[in-house]
């Protein structure tokens, strides 16, 4: 709690994006803000660890060994560059908070939580000089965005098989598994953008335009994960010597209805005692707008090697796709005139490594690195009638380590990623961002199991 307050206090605002691109549509996607997932470039369709609450994969909760609580915060430094000019800002806020409720080692689980989705935070201003009015300052400020509350159920099944151990014996192992999950979620939030024309000469009135879009949408997500042990090796003493495991995962969510309570206020303002005061309303609009958020699907997989000393190496990939181009008719009211919706596609690749156990040291850290390339659902239209999609790349790394002094499987998660968001238009700026993530997962100790009745005290 202290760390979250400190992170927010050092930041300039509780928003994630400092981006003029956020004025288009619902806002710019923040990506996954769970440290362990962000450090793997946002791979979510297939689970890379049994210690992480994965809010974007409903089936992942079934594979967790124990009930788990997860929380995180993040900070971000973003730099905007256009030509020879640049600006920067520091922002921050909470990440994913989730809880998986289940009995230890059960294959049934309840998952619930809250996670941020998009942000509409941006701040741009410029000053021009008019021969009649003098200096004029234009400012464009955005705030708010979308969050997602979710509740889901997951169930898993396991299959066993016999593996040879030496020449005359065998071992029964869990060789395959299938987890499936169903999740209901609700999107909510208020995306606000304010544009102001401030004539520095105090004898003139100023103009302020405020647009508010309060979004609501309810939908559901299906998810599935499967694994298959391709090869496992045991010696004649039935000691584990290594295995190769193939993992697959996928999610799908159908089209959902988005309801937007839209208001637009245009008013004249004056600065009184240092504060901007509205004195006259020249225009006011209010309407309830509806549209359809397109269906989305993800597909991922990975190959994992486990060694006899607990060491592990895994390589995973993830592909996401959503046909936002279909939303131009239904959700065109959420775009500025110079932009339109476009299909969103992203591909991520990640690698994790856990070193082997050393004598007297059973706890080890896990290290991750990843890369993501994406086309965001915003297409800018130039004056020459050409289209320019908004693109993004990110490189990430991170680690998780057991909490010192804890006898449970609780983990401390650290992560960071750097990336750039831009188009091929030379007249539009580029954004470079550096994010840091800090989180924790809490699980019970073996002799103090949650949700398990005490046989004695």
Structure description:
The chain has one domain (2-442): Porin (Beta Barrel). The chain has 457 residues and is mostly beta strands. Residues 1-17 have low confidence and may be disordered. It is elongated. Strand 11 and strand 12 (275-293) form a beta hairpin. The protein has helices at residues 2-10, 35-38, and strands spanning 28-29, 68-82, 85-94, 97-101, 108-119, 122-130, 134-164, 170-199, 206-234, 240-253, 256-272, 275-293, 296-307, 312-322, 339-341, 344-354, 366-381, 387-402, 411-422, 430-442.
List keywords for this structure.
elongated; 14-stranded antiparallel beta barrel; disordered N terminus; 2 helices; 20 strands; Porin; mainly beta; single chain; 457 residues; 63% strand
């Amino acid at each position: 709690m202290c760390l979250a307050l400190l992170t927010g206090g050092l930041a300039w605002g509780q928003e994630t994006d400092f981006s003029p691109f956020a004025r288009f549509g619902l806002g710019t996607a923040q990506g996954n803000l769970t440290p362990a997932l962000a450090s793997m470039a946002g791979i979510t369709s297939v689970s890379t660890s049994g210690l992480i609450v994965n809010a974007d994969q409903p089936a992942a909760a079934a594979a967790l060994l124990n009930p788990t609580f997860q929380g995180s915060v993040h900070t971000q430094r973003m730099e905007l560059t256009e030509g020879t000019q640049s600006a920067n800002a520091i922002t921050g806020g909470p990440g994913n908070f989730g809880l998986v409720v289940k009995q230890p080692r059960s294959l049934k689980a309840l998952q619930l939580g809250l996670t941020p989705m998009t942000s509409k935070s941006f701040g741009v201003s410029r000053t021009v000089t008019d021969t009649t009015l003098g200096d004029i300052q234009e400012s464009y400020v955005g705030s708010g965005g979308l969050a997602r509350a979710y509740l889901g159920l997951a169930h898993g099944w396991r299959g066993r098989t016999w593996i040879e151990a030496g020449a005359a014996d065998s071992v029964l192992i869990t060789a395959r598994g299938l987890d499936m999950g169903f999740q209901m979620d609700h999107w909510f939030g208020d995306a606000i953008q304010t544009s102001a024309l401030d004539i520095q000469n105090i004898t003139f009135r100023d103009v302020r335009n405020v647009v508010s879009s309060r979004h609501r949408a309810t939908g559901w997500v299906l998810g599935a994960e499967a694994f298959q042990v391709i090869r496992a090796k045991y010696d004649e003493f039935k000691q584990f010597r290594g295995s190769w495991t193939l993992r697959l995962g996928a999610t799908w969510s159908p089209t959902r209805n988005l309801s937007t309570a839209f208001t637009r206020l245009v008013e004249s303002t004056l600065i009184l005692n240092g504060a901007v005061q509205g004195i006259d309303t020249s225009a006011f609009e209010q309407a309830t707008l509806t549209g359809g958020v397109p269906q989305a699907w993800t597909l991922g997989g990975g190959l994992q090697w486990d060694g006899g000393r607990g060491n592990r190496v895994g390589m995973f990939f993830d592909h996401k796709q959503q046909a936002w181009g279909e939303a131009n008719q239904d959700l065109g009211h959420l775009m500025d005139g110079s932009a339109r919706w476009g299909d969103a596609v992203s591909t991520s690749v990640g690698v994790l490594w856990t070193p082997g156990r050393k004598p007297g040291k059973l706890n080890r850290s896990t290290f991750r690195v990843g890369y993501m390339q994406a086309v965001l659902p915003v297409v800018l239209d130039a004056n020459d009638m050409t289209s320019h999609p908004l693109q993004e790349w990110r490189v990430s790394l991170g680690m998780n380590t057991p909490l010192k002094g804890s006898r449970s499987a609780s983990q401390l998660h650290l992560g960071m990623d750097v990336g750039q968001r831009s188009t091929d238009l030379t007249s539009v700026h580029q954004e470079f961002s550096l994010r840091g993530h800090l989180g924790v997962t809490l699980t019970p100790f073996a002799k103090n199991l949650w949700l398990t009745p005490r046989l004695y005290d």
